[in-house]
Design goal:
- This protein has two domains: about 70 residues, Arc Repressor Mutant, subunit A, CATH 1.10.10; about 130 residues, Jelly Rolls.
- The protein is built from six helices and twelve strands.
- The strands form four sheets. It has a six-stranded antiparallel sheet with strand order 3-4-5-11-7-10.
- A hairpin with a 3-residue loop joins strand 3 and strand 4.
- Helix 1 packs across helix 3 and helix 2 packs across helix 3.
- It is elongated.
- The two termini are about 30 Å apart.
- It binds zinc ion (ZN).
- Zinc ion binds next to helix 3.
C-alpha cells in the first residue's frame, strides 16, 4: 500500500498543466503507480473539461465567441494525422545487474535519461534532461547505502520507483511520494534491500553533521 501521496491540490495543478516539467514528471510517475491518485487526476480532468465546455463561450464577448467557434470548427474539421510519432518507449532499466520495470511516464522519457555516475555512499545517479533548468535525477541506492544527514534549502521530493529506503521518520516503499522542506533534517538509508528513486530538489542539500559538513561546498555533487 502506498502511504505518501501528492496533495490533491498538486494533482489538480498537474491536471491543469500548471506544474513545471520536473514536478509534472514526478507527479505523473506517482499517478502511474497509484490507483487512488489516478482517480483524483481523472476527477480533476473531468471537472476542468466541464468548466471549459460550459463556461468559456458564455464568458467571452460576442466577437471573441465567434472566433472561438470558428477555431473549434477548424480543429474539428482538420483530419487526424495518419501516423502519430510516439517517443521511444523503453520500460526496462538495467542497473547494477538488475532489471527495473519503469512506470509508463518514465518509460516514455527513457531517451532523456543522462549518463549514470557514482555518488559517495554506494549510490548511482543519472539526470533526467527535461529541457528545463530544474534538477531531477534517478537515484539508485544499493543495499546498505546512506546519504549523510542533511537539511534542504528548498524542497526535496523523492518518489520510490522500486525498493525500500528509511529515514528517522519512516520507511518508504514503491510509489511513496515524499516531500521534505527546509524544516526537515533527515538521513536516508537503505538496509537489506536496494532502492530506485526519482528525486527533485529546488536547491542543493545542506549537510549538518560530522565530516559530511565538509562536503557542503560540494553538496551539488550529490544530487545536482
Ligand atoms: Zn497516490
Amino acid at each position: 500500500m502506498i502511504k505518501y501521496h501528492p496533495t490533491d491540490q498538486l494533482i489538480e495543478q498537474f491536471a491543469g498543466g500548471l506544474l513545471t516539467p520536473a514536478l509534472s514528471v514526478i507527479v505523473a510517475t506517482h499517478i502511474d503507480l497509484c490507483p487512488r491518485c489516478q482517480q483524483v487526476a481523472h476527477d480533476a480532468e473531468q471537472l476542468l473539461a466541464e468548466q471549459v465546455m460550459h463556461t468559456t463561450p458564455n464568458k467571452l464577448p460576442p466577437e471573441l465567441n465567434q472566433q472561438f467557434n470558428a477555431m473549434l470548427e477548424q480543429i474539428l474539421a482538420t483530419p487526424a494525422p495518419s501516423t502519430i510519432i510516439q517517443p521511444p518507449y523503453h520500460e526496462n532499466l538495467h542497473l547494477n545487474g538488475k532489471v527495473f520495470n519503469l512506470p509508463a511516464t518514465l518509460a516514455r522519457q527513457y531517451h532523456r535519461i543522462g549518463e549514470w555516475s557514482r555518488v559517495p555512499g554506494k549510490m548511482l545517479k543519472a539526470p533526467l534532461h527535461l529541457g528545463s533548468n530544474e534538477c531531477i535525477n534517478l537515484i539508485y541506492m544499493d543495499h546498505g547505502s546512506r546519504v549523510p544527514e542533511h537539511t534542504h534549502k528548498g524542497n526535496e521530493i523523492t518518489l520510490v520507483i522500486n525498493g525500500v529506503f528509511n529515514d528517522e521518520q519512516d520507511e518508504y516503499k514503491d510509489g511513496d511520494f515524499v516531500l521534505l522542506s527546509q524544516q526537515h533534517t533527515h538521513q536516508p538509508e537503505t538496509r537489506d534491500e536496494d532502492c530506485l528513486t526519482l528525486a527533485t530538489l529546488d536547491a542543493p542539500l545542506h549537510f549538518t553533521s560530522g565530516i559530511a559538513r565538509l562536503l557542503n561546498p560540494f553538496s551539488s555533487l550529490f544530487f545536482k
